[in-house]
C-alpha cells in the first residue's frame, strides 16, 4: 500500500476544495471565479507532478524551485489557496465574503498569504548556497522580510491603481494598512514556525 503522506493529502484535499469552488462558479455563472479556480487547480497540481517528472532539476534553478519540491511548503500554500478561493465564493452558495458579503474576510487571506509568501521567499534565499551565494541565518531572515515587504507593498499599490478598472476594489488607506499588518503577522508566524518548529524547513546552523 502506498503511503501518500500528510502533506500530499493536504494538497490533494485543497485541490478538491478548489474543485468544489469551480463547480459552484459554473452553477453561479461567475466567469471570473471559473478562471480563478482553474488556475488554482493547475497550480496546485504542479508540486504533485513536477518532482516525479523532473526529480533532478537543473542545478542553477534548484534554489528557485526548492519550494515546489518541498511538500510541506506546498501544503501551506495549498491551504492558503483553498481558503482564499472559498472566501471569494463559498462553495454551493452565492456568498462572496471577500468582495461583498463580509469584506473583513480579506484579513484571513492576507494572514495566510503573508505566511506563505514569506516562507517561499526565505526558502529560496536559504537555498542560494547551491549556486555559490551563501547567506547567514540572520541575512536570510532580514532579506526575506525586505523582499516580502516589497512584494506586499507592491501588491497594495497595484490594487490601488486598479481601482479605476475594477469596480469592486475600493479600499481606504486604513484598510491597506490593516492588510499589511495581517501580512506581517502571517510572516512573523512563519518565522516562528521555521525557528521553533523547523517547519516547513529549517535554516540550520549558518
Automatic annotation (TrEMBL):
Membrane-spanning ranges: 9-27, 73-95, 107-128, 140-157
Record keywords, A-Z: Membrane, Transmembrane, Transmembrane helix
InterPro entries documented for this protein: YjdF-like
Keyword Transmembrane helix: yes
Protein name: Uncharacterized protein
The species this protein was found in: Thermococcus pacificus
Amino acid at each position: 500500500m502506498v503511503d501518500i503522506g500528510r502533506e500530499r493529502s493536504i494538497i490533494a484535499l485543497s485541490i478538491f476544495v478548489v474543485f468544489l469552488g469551480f463547480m459552484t462558479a459554473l452553477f453561479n455563472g461567475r466567469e471570473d471565479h471559473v478562471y480563478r479556480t482553474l488556475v488554482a487547480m493547475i497550480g496546485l497540481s504542479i508540486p504533485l507532478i513536477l518532482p516525479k517528472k523532473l526529480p533532478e532539476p537543473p542545478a542553477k534553478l534548484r534554489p528557485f524551485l526548492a519550494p515546489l519540491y518541498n511538500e510541506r511548503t506546498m501544503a501551506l500554500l495549498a491551504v492558503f489557496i483553498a481558503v482564499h478561493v472559498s472566501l471569494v465564493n463559498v462553495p454551493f452558495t452565492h456568498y462572496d465574503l471577500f468582495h461583498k458579503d463580509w469584506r473583513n474576510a480579506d484579513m484571513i487571506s492576507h494572514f495566510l498569504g503573508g505566511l506563505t509568501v514569506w516562507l517561499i521567499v526565505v526558502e529560496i534565499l536559504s537555498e542560494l548556497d547551491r549556486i555559490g551565494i551563501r547567506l547567514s541565518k540572520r541575512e536570510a531572515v532580514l532579506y526575506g522580510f525586505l523582499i516580502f515587504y516589497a512584494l506586499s507593498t507592491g501588491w497594495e499599490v497595484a490594487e490601488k491603481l486598479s481601482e479605476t478598472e475594477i469596480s469592486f476594489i475600493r479600499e481606504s488607506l486604513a484598510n491597506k494598512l490593516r492588510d499589511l499588518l495581517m501580512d506581517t503577522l502571517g510572516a512573523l508566524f512563519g518565522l516562528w514556525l521555521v525557528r521553533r518548529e523547523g517547519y516547513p524547513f529549517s535554516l540550520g546552523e549558518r
